[in-house]
Write a structure and sequence with these properties.
10 helices, about 40% helix, alpha/beta, 8-stranded mixed sheet
Length: about 325
């Protein structure tokens, strides 16, 4: 077993392993995460599956953002640049299978609850992680896992009690002189599990057809804007929840009331002003409201202007 210092987010150099602790409801409850990302991806022809991009982001990065509230995130795989700092570990021998990888990951966490995830879940979101943890805490079960559209268990999209996993893994290791090569169901069959149906978040990418389906879904009208905003924030390394509708309304008002190129430039200036003020979402919203009012005044004063903001030179204008 080996542990490596994390390379940190892209372009930032080494970073610390622990992440922030999340808030759930009224209380702040800690959990850790173990992400299994070292499979051979045979059905993808041996491609680097965690690094395959869906919606402009690597599959592994998408999963890491979904569990960003974990106190510590351990990725069992060879180190690579990621969207946020994590702790890296590798099972011995490499390629020993999911139980060996899970056992390795558990050796580097301390929380009573652990989210266990595969690295190929394009639609996993933080809200799904919260649902799993809530189900685990309220039912008293050993684990809470997602089921897919066919009702099949997805044990690598789940929250577990760490003690239950350690106990089960130790028993299997004793019975089989190790964990290498054992299927995951050998562990989950002995656990008391509660199930959370979610055909979307449980969707995993095993084949190139799965990758194509995921990319197509992201580009559907109902998903593309949220996906794009999330991808931009990840790429820029920012975590800022802003009122998207407010910014879209501002862009519309600037385009219609001033000139079409005013839309992107105006929203850029709003963000720049908020950053200069070292503000958060409230500063963005306040700047947007201020400039939206200016755009409306501009439009009111330019009632005789053309659609692109240029003066109307028709003979009957004015």
């Amino acid at each position: 077993m080996t542990v490596d210092e994390p390379p940190g987010p892209r372009g930032t150099g080494p970073g610390p392993a622990p992440g922030p602790v999340a808030a759930f409801g009224e209380a702040r409850d800690s959990f850790d995460a173990v992400v299994l990302a070292g499979g051979a991806a045979r059905r993808l022809g041996g491609a680097d599956k965690p690094g395959v991009h869906v919606g402009g982001r690597a599959l592994l990065d998408r999963v890491l953002m979904a569990c960003a509230d974990a106190g510590t995130t351990v990725v069992v795989a060879d180190p690579r640049p990621t969207v946020r700092p994590v702790r890296w570990a590798r099972e011995e021998p490499p390629g020993g299978g999911p139980l060996a990888a899970l056992d390795t990951g558990l050796r580097h966490i301390t929380a009573d609850h652990v989210v266990v995830l595969s690295a190929d879940l394009p639609f996993l979101a933080a809200r799904t992680v919260r649902r799993l943890l809530s189900a685990l805490r309220t039912t008293g079960a050993d684990g809470a896992l997602l089921t897919d559209g066919g009702g099949r268990d997805q044990p690598l999209v789940a929250a577990y009690r760490s003690a239950a996993l350690r106990h089960g893994l130790a028993a299997l290791a004793d019975a089989h002189a190790g964990l290498a090569g054992l299927p995951l169901r050998r562990l989950t069959a002995g656990l008391d599990l509660t199930r959370v149906p979610d055909p979307v978040a449980s969707f995993d990418c095993d084949t190139w057809d799965d990758i194509a389906a995921a990319r197509a879904r992201i580009r559907e009208h109902g998903h593309v804007l949220d996906e794009w905003i999330s991808a931009v924030k990840d790429e820029l390394g920012i975590d800022l929840a802003v009122d998207t509708k407010l910014l879209l309304d501002l862009a519309r008002d600037a385009a219609h009331g001033v000139a079409r190129p005013a839309a992107p430039l105006t929203t850029f200036l709003v963000g720049y002003a908020a950053a200069q003020a070292r503000g958060g979402p409230e500063a963005v919203a306040e700047s947007a409201r201020t400039v939206a009012a200016l755009a409306r005044r501009w439009a009111e004063e330019s009632g005789d202007a053309g659609a692109d903001g240029a003066p109307d030179t028709r003979p009957d204008a004015g």
